[in-house]
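User: Predict the structure for this protein chain, please.
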Amino acid sequence: MIAFGLGMLILGQYGAELFLSRASLIVVLAGMTVCFGGWPMLRELRFSLLVLLLAIPIPAIIYNQITFPLQILASKAASALLPVFGVPVLREGNVIDLPTMRLEVAEACSGIRSLISLFTLAIFYGYFLDKSVVRRTLLVLSSIPIAIGANAIRIVGTGLCVQYWDPDKAVGFFHEFSGWVVFLVSLGCLFAVHKMLCLFSPRRVST
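Assistant: Here is the predicted structure, written as structure tokens:
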């Protein structure tokens, strides 16, 4: 396994594939664990090793395939919600035309970073605070729509500030500050989902 990891490192270096080079470290660590502690030790440390994969940036080819659909999805959701608050919009791809200015849902506004962060926190939250594999899985999966919905709400908030407040402050201070606020709200939603899963999941009756 150590040799395989070193082979991944060499291929990654010569092929200029950073993800392969970085992932080779985890394979080497797994091989060293087996070498010095045996397979039982690897089974005990499997979560710690696998979770290290989340620290490796997604390959660019996959990142680009995920980011653009998220941009379009966020644009569509914001375009559907803004008219509810009296803001007329015209959407062209990932660009939202408002009466006062044009909003572009750029790559940084796709929500991919908050999605990955919330996904990672959901994994840790479920692993340390719940013993049910089913609830852990549902909790992790729920982080995806929560992050996407939260990002759409952030864009809607920016659009409302552009229309009813100050466009410069809306795309400046509010846009940056709302990212932190929306992420904290997403964490609260994740906590609420876990509580609901615990409330409605069947309990074992001891005999």
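The chain has seven helices and three strands.
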